[in-house]
Amino acid sequence: xxxxxxxxxxxxxxxxxxxxxxxxxxxxxxxxxxxxxxxxxxxxxxxxxxxxxxxxxxxxxxxxxxxxxxxxxxxxxxxxxxxxxxxxxxxxxxxxxxxxxxxxxxxxxxxxxxxxxxxxxxxxxxxxxxxxxxxxxxxxxxxxxxxxxxxxxxxxxxxxxxxxxxxxxxxxxxxxxxxxxxxxxxxxxxxxxxxxxxxxxxxxxxxxxxxxxxxxxxxxxxxxxxxxxxxxxxxxxxxxxxxxxxxxxxxxxxxxxxxxxxxxxxxxxxxxxxxxxxxxxxxxxxxxxxxxxxxxxxxxxxxxxxxxxxxxxxxxxxxxxxxxxxxxxxxxxxxxxxxxxxxxxxxxxxxxxxxxxxxxxxxxxxxxxxxxxxxxxxxxxxxxxxxxxxxxxxxxxxxxxxxxxxxxxxxxxxxxxxxxxxxxxxxxxxxxxxxxx
Length: 437
Ligand code: IFM
What we know:
The protein is α/β, with parallel strands linked by helices. The protein has one domain (5-432): TIM Barrel (Alpha-Beta Barrel), CATH 3.20.20.80. The protein is built from 16 helices and twelve strands. The protein is globular.
């Protein structure tokens, strides 16, 4: 029996318990054929046994602010080929992953060729099956020795990071498609308005325990929420981005380099709201810095409604993520539009997704958000790609394995990955809405 595409789409949607949406039926003007369609992970969250990293030490400390240690994670250090297959099975053309600085430089100035070769194999492995590797040079975690020298509070931090970028780029840059230096370096400020109270104190106590254990004045992890001098950390991260990018560019000038920023879709809920002041505080200096980059990475998960005195509650009927925050499909496009307005360089969505045990929310969100993203592109915003966070359920930092962002489930004992229905929705959207030929 022959079925036409509309019937097929409706049948697929019905099998997923959804009505066929215009998103699945195909956009009138498709995404460009060279659009980057990807899924993302980060080393510490999926590799497992990242024992020289700051987070590993903190996860296994008393007191710790972590719900549980990362342990084996998804064992992607061994099983990365399986991960690449998951990406291609969805019909995507890109994989975003990160280098683990602590593996490559486990002691200051001691660089491991074996570990560089590991990441080279991943990059070559992507290329061999037609995937464009988007490589994050640093996704939060730093080596224990770096954190024990004060982390990003250390005035030497930018140069230490640039030295790592230089070594990594010499080994790896040839095969990389797009590189980002840092992941969400603006996050600490943002987290203070997003995370449950009490976490800041727990983070501070944990850092103090780590410093005492190592006999150093300050232990500051790459993902520390509590920072003794946030302005100094921001200045060093910005200098680190600039120096790291220069080091990568010195090796391969034509490699597109950017930085990935955590961005809400900030909306003005009433006149005189704190929206613009918040944008100034959380993103603008980074977005201005990104004007000198090849692209800016945008990572969006929610919107924020700003009133005169602070953030307002989401509407009562809002869909919610596992943290209780609103899941608002147009938020991605809103954040992307603002990033472009200030940075004025092309955008790559390096992360977008939802933390939820209810996969129907993810299945709803993906096509809806992508339709809004396409509308922004049709309005002239240059968006080069979209990477969904995350390829698989993984170690969600302080929340451990309780929070699920994956397109695939993860069995933590067998390491089996299984596609969720939302993964198929993403696959079908890409298939139906990308120009061919
Ligand atoms: O898991 C994180 C990722 O490491 C950075 N961006 C947000 C994700 C979901 O919280």
